[in-house]
Write a structure and sequence with these properties.
This protein has 327 residues and is of the alpha/beta class. The chain has 13 helices and ten strands. The protein starts with a helix and ends in a 5-residue tail after the last helix.
């Protein structure tokens, strides 16, 4: 080809490439293809239910398919790492619970991801705690009675959690240390099977998320003795917080959206805006209330990163005080 003709063609290609790079950086045209929200838990639990709510909302906002991909296993590590090593273009988004980001780093000697290094926080959704549940035929009706019952029956009671090192595990271990009681830990692969066995009487107690347990508490299939969050739940006003019941606890949990660290800031901003715009929709907030989410902070991505940083310190201190480590 004549060099005179070739030079303008190459220039045009270079300009197109630069335009494409600029588009990626400013978020124009995002998402452009299917967005996958990765959830590191099995279907039907609280994390999954909320993720599916936002998948529907974001799909309508983007006029683009937004799907949920459940990648459970290894205490959430598999799903989180899948996003950390994924494309940094906003098409693979992590929706996870706090423990995967702020507890796992304190528990595991080797972790395939570093929360502050490998992720860009996008939006925090909800803040609170978990319910301490006991099987309905266990005698105690208060947290103090439960402690007294456990002391009277050393090594006779067990409790379930959604995995070794999970928030439910560490919260109970913190209570055990404060109260001076001994309970056998029975780890499960998710919150739902833990609650199912609580209802069936196969296990005695356990902490579990609110959204997937509130109805079984109201139906009397399990008893709720305390809540690990900062304030009482409006839907269970008679259930005190752990602190109110005499066993202080301040390591609260949350849910949040994350993308790989190198995702363009404009895409992070767009996701943040759409997620928080959804929280202004009465239909969305009503559904979140039905899932028992009443505390809905809306930090900027930068503020959420500071939440992450502080919680990493707080949970690390708790893990160290309890002495729990995992390989």
């Amino acid at each position: 080809m004549n060099r005179t003709l070739l030079r303008p063609a190459l220039t045009a290609l270079a300009l197109l490439a630069l335009a494409g790079a600029a588009t990626a950086q400013d978020g124009a045209g995002y998402p452009g293809k299917t967005v996958t929200i990765v959830v590191p838990t099995p279907p039907a639990g609280g994390t999954d239910l909320i993720a599916r709510l936002f998948a529907d909302v974001l799909g309508k906002a983007f006029k683009q398919s937004v799907i949920v991909d459940n990648r459970a296993g290894a205490n959430g590590i598999l799903g989180v790492d899948f996003v950390a090593k994924g494309p940094a273009d906003g098409t693979r988004v992590l929706f996870t619970y706090a423990a995967t980001m702020v507890i796992n780093p304190a528990l595991y000697k080797k972790l395939p991801y570093e929360p502050l290094k490998d992720f860009a926080p996008v939006a925090q959704v909800g803040r609170g705690g978990n319910l301490l549940l006991v099987r309905k035929d266990l005698p105690p009706n208060t947290l103090k009675d439960f402690v007294a019952h456990a002391k009277a029956h050393p090594d006779k009671l067990n409790y379930c959690s959604w995995g070794n090192g999970s928030g439910g595990h560490l919260t109970m271990e913190s209570l055990k240390k404060q109260a001076g009681i001994s309970l056998l830990h029975v780890p499960y692969k998710g919150s739902s099977p833990c609650v199912q066995d609580l209802m069936g009487g196969q296990v005695d107690a356990g902490f579990a998320d609110i959204s997937s347990t509130i109805e079984v508490v109201k139906a009397g299939r399990v008893k709720a003795l305390a809540y690990s969050g900062p304030d009482r739940l409006p839907m269970l006003p008679d259930v005190p917080t752990m602190t109110q019941a005499g066993f202080p606890f301040k390591n609260y949990t949350w849910y949040g959206f994350f993308v790989p660290a190198k995702t363009p800031p404009a895409i992070v901003k767009r996701l943040n805006e759409e997620i928080y715009r959804a929280l202004q929709d009465p239909a969305v907030t009503q559904r979140l209330r039905e899932l028992n989410f009443t505390d809905l902070p809306r930090p900027t991505p930068e503020q959420f990163k500071e939440v992450l940083r502080q919680d990493l310190q707080d949970w690390s201190a708790l893990v160290k005080s309890i002495g729990v480590t995992l390989d």
